[in-house]
Write a structure and sequence with these properties.
heterodimer; A: about 280 residues; mainly alpha; 2 domains; about 70% helix; globular; B: about 375 residues; two-stranded antiparallel ribbon; 15 helices; about 65% helix
Chain lengths: ~280, ~375
């Protein structure tokens, strides 16, 4: 399943052509309208924001909102970064090992264990939130970023395992057999064959996990305190307040969105592969 | 034997993850189930204790959710979730399929359009919610958009409206369900009859008729509530559905586009040379092939919509009863109200709803994989 355009036989021009483009342009407006509004609002001075002139261009243009938002959000962005990096690397490493075992070292009962693992990916996290909250409190990790990292590593395991298992299933068993004859063991095969061949698998998993963890809210709002909260929680608090002028939440929204948007724009191919792998049986 | 040792190593490498998931998923679900049958939270002194003393109360929390006057909000939340899921699915599938078909027409700049339609998916629900909260301001945003081209401004109250439409009495829910099931059975009966399976059709027809009559008379003998309680579709959800579709329709577009690209060109050419118009080609050849994609998209979107939490929090606030859903109410009851047992009961209801969607999906997709 690839999204790239396949070469096609040229067909006669249809009279519906202009309609197709018109609809696509209308859809484009629908998807970009909010972005226009965010940008012009964020680039206005707080005193310049009136509901009636929402759509007007800023006059004068001002970067002040970004400066203020950056000052307020820099620590939260740092929390999000630490969280997303550690939790992504942790769940990707474990998921890779799990996928390797489940695809190449099948053991009796794997057919039962694997769906039981996958179910953990779909549960509403409310169903584990109370014991998780109690557990983190009892081990002293409640309120800290490390508790949140641990949480994301554990609940990231099903999806990373699934993606890696499907990825490793493509690597022919004959390569492993050859390596075994050459005397490689479990770790030797992993280090010399599986890991080097799975670089693009790692890219997919890392992008997917980073995006999901950066964007996550329920765990973040329940398990962190003021000092350790990630950007999503800080943004929700700011935007929920009534006193704040809208330039600030809009600038904050841009700051919160930039990392995942950049990933999407620069590494879109891998992003979409993760998206398809995470939802459709590969 | 070396090979045997490696197998043991492999299993040992997997073991920590298995143990973690066994505890964090199944152990914790079990614990939540247990908490939901206790009185945790009814005594404020115990609520936040590190080792709270819990007394068993059986199914009282669940009975309370579905029958107590104080929990009408929870029942409205179920109605909200139902309508949200319905419109969210219809919106995402319809728009996603439409866009995918448009992009399938070999348009110029396809990659640019694709990138634009899918980018909201990269955003956090909190970011989307913050943006759309501003878009849907009653005196600004979308409402003043028409003034740019000289039209009068709109007066839609979006998220702030308290209006409810399609109201129904919760007490009559069994009756409504009976009539709906009867209608579905009737369709099956008709199809069986037509396919020369007269006996089966007749049996189904009789069952459907009996169920319909029973429901038509208000399902005597089965009442959810002893008193009348009105619920309906909260109009304030239209804005939230709009934002959710904006965010997620690119995802269905990507799924459908991948599916359309999987339709072999020979098949299209064969249909065309048989004289099929483009419309007939899609209607009779291509769309039926997209059935499995629609089903998995429905399941993925459905389970997201049952769990929707952050988008509503960011758009309408966490405390707004009108736009409340069970996922939000669980958080409020548990972590704001310290009603841990009741929160756990809501969480279990949510889990059952999600599991009803996901378990058959996992079951069938993994079984088909084994067969492959």
């Amino acid at each position: 399943m690839s999204l790239t355009t396949l070469p096609r036989i040229q067909k006669r021009r249809s009279p519906w052509r202009p309609v197709v483009y018109l609809l696509l342009v209308l859809a484009t407006i629908f998807y970009l309208l909010p972005i226009y509004l965010v940008l012009v609002t964020a680039l206005k001075e707080a005193t310049d924001i009136q509901l009636a002139t929402t759509w007007n261009l800023p006059n004068p243009w001002s970067w002040g909102s970004f400066v203020t938002a950056w000052q307020a959000f820099a620590p939260k962005l740092r929390n999000s970064l630490v969280l997303a990096v550690f939790a992504t690397v942790g769940s990707a490493m474990l998921g890779s090992l799990n996928g390797y075992v489940l695809s190449k070292w099948r053991f009796p009962g794997a057919g039962i264990v694997f769906p039981l693992m996958l179910f953990g990916m779909f549960i509403p996290y409310q169903a584990i939130l109370i014991p998780l909250f109690q557990f983190l409190k009892s081990v002293g990790l409640y309120g800290s970023i490390w508790g949140l990292i641990l949480t994301h590593i554990v609940y990231g395991l099903p999806i990373t395992t699934l993606i890696f298992r499907n990825f490793y299933a493509e690597i022919p068993d004959e390569m492993l057999e050859a390596a075994k004859i050459d005397g490689s063991g479990f770790f030797g095969i992993y280090a010399r064959i599986m890991f080097p061949l799975s670089v693009s698998g790692f890219v997919v998993v890392i992008i997917w996990q980073f995006t999901q963890i950066w964007n996550e809210f329920l765990f973040a709002v329940t398990l962190t305190n003021q000092a350790s909260q990630p950007i999503t929680v800080a943004l929700a608090q700011l935007a929920g307040g009534e006193a704040v002028k809208w330039n600030l939440p809009m600038a904050g929204a841009i700051l919160a969105a930039l990392p995942t948007l950049l990933i999407y724009i620069v590494l879109g191919r891998y992003f979409i592969r993760g998206l398809l792998a995470g939802s459709v049986k590969g | 034997m070396k090979l045997h040792g490696d197998r043991v190593t492999a299993f040992l490498m997997l073991l920590p993850s298995l143990i973690l998931l066994a505890i964090f998923v199944y152990g914790f679900i079990g614990r939540t189930a247990y908490v939901s049958t206790t009185d945790w939270g009814s005594n404020p002194a115990q609520a936040l204790a590190l080792e709270p003393q819990l007394e068993p109360v059986g199914a009282a929390n669940y009975v309370g959710l579905f029958t107590s006057r104080f929990n009408a909000r929870f029942r409205q939340d179920l109605v909200n979730t139902f309508f949200f899921t319905l419109f969210f699915l219809v919106g995402c599938l319809g728009l996603g399929l439409g866009l995918a078909i448009l992009l399938d027409q070999r348009v110029r700049g396809e990659a640019v359009f694709r990138t634009i339609f899918l980018f909201p998916f990269a955003l956090a629900f909190i970011v989307t919610g913050t943006i759309w909260r501003w878009m849907l301001q009653p005196q600004g945003g979308l409402n003043v958009l028409p003034t740019l081209v000289g039209l009068p401004k709109l007066e839609l109250p979006w998220l702030t409206t308290r209006q409810q439409v399609w109201r129904f009495d919760w007490r009559h829910l069994p009756a409504y369900l009976a009539v709906i099931v009867a209608l579905v059975l009737l369709i099956f009966a008709w199809r069986a009859w037509r396919n020369q399976r007269r006996g089966r059709g007749a049996t189904l027809g009789v069952v459907a008729l009996a169920l319909g009559v029973w429901g038509g008379f208000g399902a005597p003998g089965l009442t959810f509530l002893p008193y009348s309680e009105l619920h309906g579709f909260n109009v304030a959800f239209i804005g939230i559905v709009l934002a959710a579709v904006w965010q997620m329709s690119g995802y269905t577009m990507a799924l459908y586009l991948a599916g359309l690209r999987g339709v072999p060109e020979e098949l299209r050419e064969a249909a065309r040379s048989d004289g099929a118009s483009e419309w007939q080609l899609y209607r009779h050849v291509i769309l039926p092939l997209l059935g499995p994609i629609t089903l998995s998209a429905m399941i993925i979107l459905g389970h997201i919509s049952l769990k929707i939490f952050d988008l509503i929090w960011a758009m309408a606030g966490s405390d707004n009863a009108v736009t409340d859903v069970p996922a939000l109410l669980m958080y409020l009851r548990t972590f704001r109200g310290n009603q841990f047992a009741e929160g756990a009961a809501i969480a279990m209801v949510l889990l059952v709803m999600v599991a009803a969607v996901i378990v058959p999906y996992l079951w069938t997709s993994l079984r088909s994989e084994v067969r492959r």
